[in-house]
Write a structure and sequence with these properties.
The structure holds two protein chains of two kinds. Chain A is globular. By secondary structure, chain A is α/β, with parallel strands linked by helices. Chain A folds into three domains: about 130 residues, Rossmann fold (3-Layer(aba) Sandwich); about 70 residues, no CATH class; about 30 residues. Chain B is mainly alpha-helical. Chain B has 16 helices and two strands. A two-stranded antiparallel ribbon of chain B has the order 1-2. The chains are: A alpha/beta, B mainly alpha. Chains A and B meet through helix 2, helix 3 and helix 5 of A and helix 8, helix 9 and helix 16 of B.
Amino acid sequence: MSPILELTNVTQRFGGLTAVDDVTLSVMPGEVVGLIGPNGAGKTTLVNVITGVYRGTGTIVFDGQRIEALKPYQISRLGVARTYQVVQPFPEMTALENVMAPATFAHAGVSLTTAREKAAEALDFVGLGAEKDKRASSLTLAGRKRLELAKSLAMEPKVLLLDEVNAGLNPAEIDVAVDLIRRIAARGVTIIIIEHLMKVVMNLCTRIVVLHHGAKIAEGAPDTVTSDPAVIEAYLGNRYAKRAAERAAAAAGGAHG
Amino acid sequence: MNKGQTMHRVAVALTLIAVALIAALPALSDNYLLRLGTMGAMYAILALSWNIIGGFAGYPSFSTAAFFGLGAYSGAILQGAGLPMPLAWVAAGLIAMAFATLLGLAILHLKGHYFAIASLVVAEVLLEITTSWTSLTGGGMGLNLPIIRISIDAQARLFFWSMLAIAVMALGMNYWVSRHRLGFGLMCIRQNEDAASMVGINTTLYKVTAFALSAVLVGAAGALYASWVFYIEPPDVFATLTSVKPIVMAMLGGAGTVLGPAIGAVLFLAMEELVWRNLLQIHAAALGLLIVALIFFLPGGLLGLVTGKRKRRVVAKKGETTSNSAVKGGAA
């Protein structure tokens, strides 16, 4: 099986700042990949490079096709959908109209009637069916996050990039959101999720990629990654990492003695 | 049949009746009214055209004067070269459209105030070029158009009906755009351009199309105006006010709606005429104050009163502020 998304030596610089530093990554169809790292690690920038908002260097292959030189609307039409860290609804439209937009424009030759049916279906899937005629701006934050998911689902994506869909939600709302993401993955959509909440990452992801200062410092199964000294150092600083290592060594020594 | 469809049919029927009544205006054989009618139709063309780029797409274009003047001069020069009048109008519209397409590709990546200023400068540049290019345009001396050999009354009727026909086309264009995926895409662009491109809208193509549509009938109206008044000069057809008035009209009636700009154009003309007649000395100041007051108290335009859009906008704004604080709270 060939990867659905393959990044090779992707770099993005802003003036003197290297926001994404030589990242190579391949994602297989059906995977749920967690993208984690401290604030400013370049996670969102990487999503912006994949979706064509920024044009970096390196190659990006999606579904056997080079996409690094394409525009955002072209990439999204191919089947790469995303949600934003800060929700981006069309505020004056109803929830239904919001979801109709991707249903209309993501594929050629979709009539507004068909788009309306697809949109209603996507809203039902995320549990917003009862609120389809409400204005997007009058939904709760949790509702608007689900609206973002419905919008990206209406594009019928092959790959879905979720940028902190759980930020700002309370624990009960997070459980609902995690369940929803799991159901989306079960439909066969490949998911790359940026997330700060370790509970969510450990629960959902089949694989975790850690970014630090724009570079990939670790990659692997959730358990392996969280015990990786480089990851602990990136998150908690090297003094803590050294102390943790000493403690581990002492414990090991104590066991021997 | 639901309530929305009934409302829609009633609105269409009323519009058709209104157009028919206006078209019968020459029956009163009052040339002053006919002149006002021609002006009103011209204002409606400008406001309805601006509505495509400014109302639907939310790009505050001040290019109307540029398209109008370009159309006027194109039409006048072509008519002078011997092209029949109606063909000159069509050609002027197409020239304005082609110009808007190129201009749009150059400046539509700018947003908000930057776009407004860039679009405002265009008319000034064209004004300078027309004034300097004496061999083609007659420069500051202006340009005379060929005289038409029919009676004055027949001329008045001809220009009135032609202008009205273009205004009806402008109305039809707005109706078509509002029901087509183009209009839906433009609405998305107005509300959130980044999100619009992320849901698969080719924003450049949509914006340039909207800009070109907002120019074509303005160019034709400019050429018709030139034929109507027989003499044009650069400061007359490239006047900045020609860019500002359509925006005021559209906002008066309701920007982003189909009928609003047309209603606003008629209302604006009525106010302009009444104020001018009764307050000759200070008419500009009085009209200005009246417009500020109307826009202040009718933020959604006249149609906003009918559809309750104003109320909803207030709610939307409240919703946005709470959402922002919620997001901030979440990030903190």
